[in-house]
Amino acid sequence: MKRLPLALLLATVALPLTTVAAHAQSAAPAPTLTAAKDGVEVTAGALKMKLIALSDDLVRVRIARGGVYAEDASWAVLPAQRATRATVTSTADGFTTAKLRVRIGAGGAVTFETLDGKIISADAAPASVDGKAFTLTKTLPITEHFYGLGDKTGGLDRRGKAFVDWNTDAFGFSSSDDPIYKSIPFFASTGAAGGSYGILLDNTYRTWFDFGHKDAETLAFGGPDGPIDYYFIAGPSLGDVTRRYAGLTGRAPLAPKWALGYQQSRYSYMSADEVREIARHLRADRVPTDVIWLDIDYQDRNRPFTTNPKTFPDMAKLVADMKAQGIKLVAITDLHIAKVDTGYAPYTSGKRGDEFVKNPDGSDYVAPVWPGPSVFPDFTQAKSRAWWGTLYKGFLDDGVAGFWNDMNEPAIFNTATKTMPLDTQHRIASDDFATRTGDHREIHNVYGMQNTRATYDGLLSLRPNERPFVMTRASYAGGQRYAVTWTGDNSATWDHLKLSVHQILNLGLSGFAYSAADVSGFAGGPSPDLLTRWFEIGAFTPVFRDHSATGTPRVEPWVDGPDHLAIRRRFVEERYRLMPYFYALADQNSRLGDPIMRPVFYDYPSAASMGCDQSMAFTLGKALLIAPPPSPESPQRYDVCLPAGGWYDYWTGQRAGSPEPTSAGPIQSATQAVPTEHAKGDRVSETPRLDRLPVFVRAGTILPRQPLVQSTAQTPSGPLMLDIYPGEDCVGTLYEDDGTTLAYQRRGYLRQTVRCSVTANGLTIAFDAREGSFAPWWKQIAVTVHGWTGAATVAQDRKAITAQPDSAAGTLSFTVAAPIRATQVTLAR
């Protein structure tokens, strides 16, 4: 064996990995580049690689193993997305697009740069292939931070940690356990010299990611087998990356409006009478509610697609009784089918159609889950997915509104791995995959996603004009096309409350805008204070479900007495008042891909370097900043850092932080500069109180709200409310549709942009013309302008309107007819 000289060997041992990689690259073979109109093909020794520009800021990198590329197919990226192309300009060492430069170095190492030469991401070494396994490494500047990978534990930032993608039934998981329920092999970076970027490693095997854990200067990721195929998404902002990733893997469809309401659940409500009593209590206590969930005990002997004839004798009647109170039912339908030879139609029809996963010898794979010995649909077959979808007809005929796919990692009882053996066989006959058989090593991480696909498509087939609602525990990249999700079986601890915020934020950055954590914690039992604080925070998360395990203390809103109930109800009510804002964010997500709940630095990048402990802070859209205590169980005072531009306290309507130094009052004239304090951002101090959750509104927000209702099935009474907080980029969006059907896809919606601008003597509010054909419930709009002093003359298209100033609140209020065409409202002192 050829040996290095001793001096060089000792020097190499002392060098960091990135420096060693540089030495390796200098000795690597020079690449041969073959230009193409959409990219370049690279050969460097044994390495063969294609780089394809799908758009000006999105490059697909495919590496051949043994000189052969894997099939061009994907569960995550749809064919139409993979087929898009940008025209490139070839260079001596790669190519450029209109936004990006790609350089190929020694050995085939890839560097992505901005057009002015700033490095976005650079390989630390050429791709390494060892048999079927592969490793990709990139340099890791000290400034970079990483997010995404779905609901992994370990905090919001992935920097310094390592993770494995292998969907796992993780009951009782800790805040640092890995892996857990989902495998979303996408991450986004901030802090690189060339701006943010994202990488999707489209490989369903047991892939791994190391963000400087093994070596502080190296980002590494890879897998044991499968395609070496990744998508590089250039920013420059985190929002740009997130939106492009959502476009690449499919944006979440607009959920039914009731999915944004409060949802009550338990494992389990044991009878139809108990469900009725829960609904009665919620209505008697005036807790607005849209959904009650049915866990497995509504079934006959835990068999999916059945009901217990004694405890749930008439599902259609129960649904009708709930509908009369404005409440929907969502029922669990696990993917295991009881192996019962007679009297159980799902097994009989599935066996007849040969729809189940196989053992290596060709027999049906059978394993114990909740019903006992069970078989499992072969969801990688299009025909098996279609069969599964037909099983929902009875429940839909009864009026059940949505469905919950649990245990779909897939979870198996009485086995050390908690899942199927790796040699279990799945028949692949779907999409643009070649028809073949794959083993469970390949299909495991995508199995739950295809389960939800079968449910979603089945519901849509049975009710073609209704929006399906599906909840899933396990999924893969792109799974947001079919289901909302939650973080699984968490625990009733303060630590898990904090973890839930990080998990939901990272799910949003990973495509899953509709996500939740079990409010209260699933396992164990929360203290009254913990449950109340979780209700407060849960009221501002995308999906708000109170859920707990069998045998644990009850966690319905009323369980800890009237004082706690009053606080919990107040926050549920505030969510319903904010429903127009939530729904406009849902519309924005369906069109653009922006998360509903976001890290503060998503819209305000400078917040990442502000000095406060922001580990619990987040924004709801761009307009609202929610700032729970960073140590949620502690009474210690804490600071909230508010990004530049000015903010208001949501609860009081008053300016937050430093006062506005203007003689004319809080609203500045168009010629006045933003005060230095607001240009840099503000810091406010908070003392934790159980009855207060600090919420702030960005100056420049036009916030739609509505009168209180007890469910989204109830039409609000009175005008739509618009709270206007003048500032730069002052804008808001009104959105409405029928809430349940797909008519919004055919212009059956209302979308209207509202803007405001400060003038020399007041304010102008401009309503754009309405888009779409839907007639909303409101006929009038009640406007409240915050930060106003003194009286005013108000006119809508020059017609005078009576306004009421409130000097104590610093507001001016008036009501206008809801504009259909472009309209201006002027306020003058």
Give an overview of the whole structure.
This protein has 829 residues and is an alpha+beta fold. It contains 16 helices and 49 strands. A 9-stranded antiparallel sheet has the order 5-6-7-8-9-10-16-15-12, covered by helices on one side. The model is unreliable at 1-24 and 660-677 (pLDDT under 50).
Summary tags:
globular, disordered N terminus, alpha+beta, eight-stranded antiparallel sheet
Give the fraction of residues assigned to helices.
Answer: 10-25%
Q: What's the story with the biggest beta sheet?
A: 9 strands, antiparallel
Mean pLDDT: 94
Beta percentage is 25-35%
State the helix count.
Answer: 16
**pLDDT < 50 stretches:** 1-24, 660-677
Main sheet: strand order: 5-6-7-8-9-10-16-15-12
Oligomer: single chain
First CA to last CA: what distance? Answer: 88 Å
Total number of β-strand segments?
Answer: 49
The gyration radius over C-alpha positions equals 28 Å
Tertiary shape = globular
Structural class: alpha+beta
